[in-house]
C-alpha cells in the first residue's frame, strides 16, 4: 500500500510506501477490508485518508461498496473486471448487530473504509483491451481483417523472441529489433504495432526480405491499412494512459480534462472516413464514455480540475453551461467557507459586543459572499497557467 499527499508549502505531490503485507487465504472482499483498516489504524491515519484508489477487481469494488463511505459512483458495474468471487448480496440484521445479538455479520466483521475511486489507468486499459475486443463481434469484415493482420504480426514477434537466428535477421535488415508485446505493460500492443508500422513505411523492402527469409506470410495492403488505422484510433488512448500513469504529475485535477480531450480526439477521427477500423473506434469511444461516466459527474473530480490552474473549467464544452455554473457555485461556496474560517480564526474570541458592533456580522457575511464570488470569477476568467509543464503530448 502506498500513500500520496500534497505538500501544502510547495503544492507538490508526495508519496511513500506505507506497507507491504501478505494476505493469507482467499482475497475476499471482507479480508481486504480488514487488512486495509488494520494498516490505517497501525499508522494512525484512519481519519486522514480522503480516498483510496484500487484496480477494478470485484473483490476491491465490493469491499468499498459494503464497508466504504457511501458513493453512488461505485455502483456502476465494470465490464471486463476480474471476478475474484461470487458477488452475492447479503442482507445484514443491523438491529441484531447493534444490540450484540446473533446477526448474520458480527460486530468484528464491520469495517470502516474511506471513499473509493477506481484506478483510471486500469479502467482505460480495460477500454483498450476488453472493450476494443467487442469490435470483433460487431463486424465480420473487421474481425477477418484484424485476425489476419495480428496473426501475421504475432508470428513475426514470436520468431524474434524465440529464435536468435530470426532476431539477427531482423536486426540486420531493419537496423533494430521490433518492439514486442508484453503482459506487464499496458501500452505494449500499441507500441508494438507502431514499431511494425514504422518498419512497413520506412523499410518495406527490408521487411519483405525478413518475412521471406523466415518463411513468414507477407503483409497485404489490407493488413497495412488495418495496422495504420489501428494506430490512428489507439494513439489518443495510449497517450492518455501514459499521462495518467505519470507519477509526479498525476493530480486528480488532471483526470477529467485529459479524458475529455481523449474523447474529443477520438471524435475527430470519425471525420477521417476509416476503411477498416470504424467498429474499433466506436467501441473504444463507448467504453471510455461508459467507464468514466461516473467520474464526469463526480463533484470531487470536477472541483479538482476546476481548482487546477492549468485547466480550470476550460475543458468543458460550450454545451456544458449548466455544469459550468454548478461547479462555479460550488467553488464559490468553498472559497466563502475558507474566508469565513480564516476571519474567524483571526478575530478575537473575547471581543465585547455592544450596540454599535452588534450587526457587524451581517455586513461581514455579505462582504464575504461578494469576496468569494469575485475571487472565483476572476480566477476562472484569467488565462490558464502556462508556468506548469504540460503533461499532454497530443
UniProtKB/TrEMBL annotation:
Protein name: Pogo transposable element with KRAB domain
Organism name: Hirondellea gigas
SUPFAM superfamilies linked: Ribonuclease H-like
Domain of life: Eukaryota
